[in-house]
């Protein structure tokens, strides 16, 4: 995606490691960490955070963030989805930075939140620098990236990709409608839509949520693109019989068919996969689900991801073939219902290169990697140049109360973002 | 279990097929079927019945039955569990007949109910015969054989095998306590416990709930015994990781371990099984259960049944060995929790022989078979001589609204029961 990064550049504004030149924009480490810890108090759950979109903790955390953004002189808006936006005043053009502040249930304290506090701290540092900037720094905290109601809700809205119908139909797994959640949260205000005349691009910092930086011994991962995702449910329909009285040869066991499919997945996908292909069977259901009843219906949720569209096609095709084969062999109805087809995408190569150069400026050799997870950056990239970077997750853990990142890595990530912003608002833009 | 049945005996009381001798005890076919259909109105659900224990339909159906038993001069009692008992008056000894009238949710109209109405019709026919009997005919409708709160609840209580603690701890899968269900139903009265000085034995008629009579072209199956049952849950514990960002080689996927176990079950049990062995994986759960999260916990419910205790032991032993092997191979915690060990039992051979002779008296060659399902008879057999017989289930179906039996087979079963009762109360007893 971008050329290999060479020797570290001299920094004009940031404090270089060798202390040769004075910093103009200065990230304050203690303040950064303190704000991150303060945000984690909203919805604190054991060592993690439970701050799902539209929960009271989410609402309160957004009020807190609006105060912080207002304090540094940004023009603060919030829309009915809860998206919080701080606009740099008195500029015609700005670079947008940020992430999401909602979490999964019983999640970690950094996923999304770190990128939001990075944006707060970087904007604050630029405000404090007193340097007149030709291009401002806008800050965003997206809503419901985690999909409690609708995955990537806030960034889709900002990118103008969300319809009224999407909002009207979205609901939580327990059935609660998004529209009810909006009313309960008390959010109002017109949708905040990205102003393409104003915004020159988007940068997002995030934890890796995987172990690859750790395994490679790197501190900064520059994201080259987002893996495409396919999700499907595989269903078999047989007949419920009494499991004590029905001879084995006379059964139409939907569970057995689904187990055969699950066994096949690992061997077949091992053949079809590339170095970064991943797959998962995340749920399985047998019905009626009693120990003494032969399952009449069985269902698996299968997901796989890869950066190569052709490989995704071959994997999906193999799934359809296998289902048809199982139907022939067992006489059961075996079906495949594809619920998600997200194509692989790439980040903006110019912005990604700036992120890599920023890391190199700070003496860090970045790692290039594709993101297996979806992020707000992937959505915003559909409407403007966008790129993102990762810092290491301890043990590769995320979406869990054990999620954590070394404090020095958190600080380094914020300095890389500040440096990239500095490069972009002072250089010619993409 | 009993000697092969020879040529049909002459019936003294029942109308022989060749019409050689007059009937004394006469089963009235229309009345039998009408009562069965009337009972099926309580909790009617499409073509089946939803009359789970302690439901309003169950309560109402028991009131209806008490009226019918009172009409024919039996002394009617009901206890706090809902068990309904009609005692033949003015006798010191009696033969007990009956079954259960509760159903599974959305079950069939015959499972249990048929045996209760058989008992009503047979007792009624003997009352109407005007013949003085040395031994009376008592009728019982057990409660909750299906285990909505506690499997075989009513028969366990009648057999004196139920403790106060059992009642106190039993609850429905949604958490409702049995004691609350008793209060809601308004049932009261001391437990009805089988009077061993009075009762000489127990006979139960039931649908087969399987396809073996149908496959063999027989109408009456005399049950030689009840298969032993083992139930266990197999659990694996791994780690929840993001399925988009965690490389395949770095996962601790509990679901994959459980799928490997499921595949093994079919091949291993095929080796270990006898002609009548059955097994079932009735439920599977992966947690947290999201498409994009590697399962951290996975669980299967495994059940197997056989008439041979040694085979059950070998199968259970193989399960433990496989779980230990999977734990070694995967490094995950894999455990086996055995929740049920019911030993195989036999029915009383003298009573089973009388049932077979009764069938033969009516010109039917009975089939001997072991029951894969548990029945109230299995419990009552622990406290007095007990036996049971089956009539064919169309398509082998049960526990389903499609459950049915040909009307002529229903009638034949009732006539076999009447003939067996006739033989037993006039012959020397076991």
Automatic annotation (TrEMBL), chains A, B:
Cofactor requirement: Mn(2+); Zn(2+)
Pfam families per the UniProt record, alphabetical: Peptidase_M20
Gene Ontology MF, one: hydrolase activity, acting on carbon-nitrogen (but not peptide) bonds, in linear amidines
Residues noted as binding Zn(2+) 2 in the record, renumbered to the chain: 111, 146, 399
Binding, allantoate: 231, 292, 305
SUPFAM superfamilies (alphabetical): Bacterial exopeptidase dimerisation domain, Zn-dependent exopeptidases
Keywords associated with the record: Hydrolase, Manganese, Metal-binding, Zinc
Binding site for Zn(2+) 1: 100, 111, 206
Cofactor binding note of this UniProt entry: Binds 2 Zn(2+) ions per subunit.
Subunit structure: Homodimer.
Family membership: Belongs to the peptidase M20 family.
Name of this protein: N-carbamoyl-L-amino-acid hydrolase
Species annotation: Afifella marina DSM 2698
């Amino acid at each position: 995606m971008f050329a290999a990064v060479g020797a570290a550049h001299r920094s004009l504004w940031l404090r270089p490691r060798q202390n040769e030149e004075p910093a103009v924009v200065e990230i304050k480490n203690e303040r950064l960490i303190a704000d991150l810890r303060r945000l984690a108090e909203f919805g604190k759950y054991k060592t993690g955070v439970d701050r799902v979109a539209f929960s009271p903790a989410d609402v309160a955390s957004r009020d807190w963030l609006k105060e912080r953004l207002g304090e540094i002189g940004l023009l603060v808006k919030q829309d009915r989805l809860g998206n919080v936006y701080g606009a740099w005043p008195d500029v015609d053009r700005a670079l947008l930075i940020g992430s999401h502040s909602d979490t999964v249930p019983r999640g970690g304290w950094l996923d999304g939140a770190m990128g939001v506090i990075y944006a707060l701290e970087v904007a604050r540092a630029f405000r404090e620098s007193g340097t007149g900037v030709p291009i401002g720094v806008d800050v965003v905290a997206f809503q419901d990236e985690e999909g409690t109601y609708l995955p990537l809700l806030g960034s889709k809205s900002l990118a103008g990709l969300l319809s009224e119908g999407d909002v009207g139909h979205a609901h939580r797994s327990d059935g609660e409608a998004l529209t009810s959640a909006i009313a309960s949260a008390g959010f109002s205000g017109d949708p905040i839509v990205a102003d393409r005349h104003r915004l020159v691009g988007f940068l997002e910092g995030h934890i890796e949520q995987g172990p690859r930086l750790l395994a490679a011994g790197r501190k900064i991962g520059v994201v080259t693109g987002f893996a495409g995702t396919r999700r499907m449910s595989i269903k078999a329909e047989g007949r419920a019989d009494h499991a004590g009285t029905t001879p084995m040869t006379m059964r139409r066991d939907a569970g057995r068919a689904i187990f055969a499919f699950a066994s096949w997945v690992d061997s077949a996908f091992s053949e079809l996969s590339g170095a970064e292909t991943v797959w998962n069977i995340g749920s399985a259901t047998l019905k009626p689900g009693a120990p003494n009843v032969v399952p009449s219906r069985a269902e698996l949720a299968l997901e796989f991801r890869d950066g190569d569209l052709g490989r995704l096609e071959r994997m999906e095709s193999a799934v359809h073939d296998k289902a048809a084969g199982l139907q022939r062999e067992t006489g059961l109805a075996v079906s495949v219902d594809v619920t998600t087809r997200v194509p692989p995408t790439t980040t903006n190569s110019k912005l990604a290169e700036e992120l890599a150069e920023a890391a190199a400026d700070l003496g860090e050799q970045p790692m290039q990697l594709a993101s297996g997870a979806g992020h707000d950056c992937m959505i915003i990239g559909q409407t403007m140049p966008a790129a993102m970077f990762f810092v290491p997750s301890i043990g590769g853990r995320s979406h869990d109360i054990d999620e954590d990142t070394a404090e020095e890595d958190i600080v380094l990530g914020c300095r890389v973002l500040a440096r990239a912003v500095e490069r972009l608002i002072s250089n010619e833009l993409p």
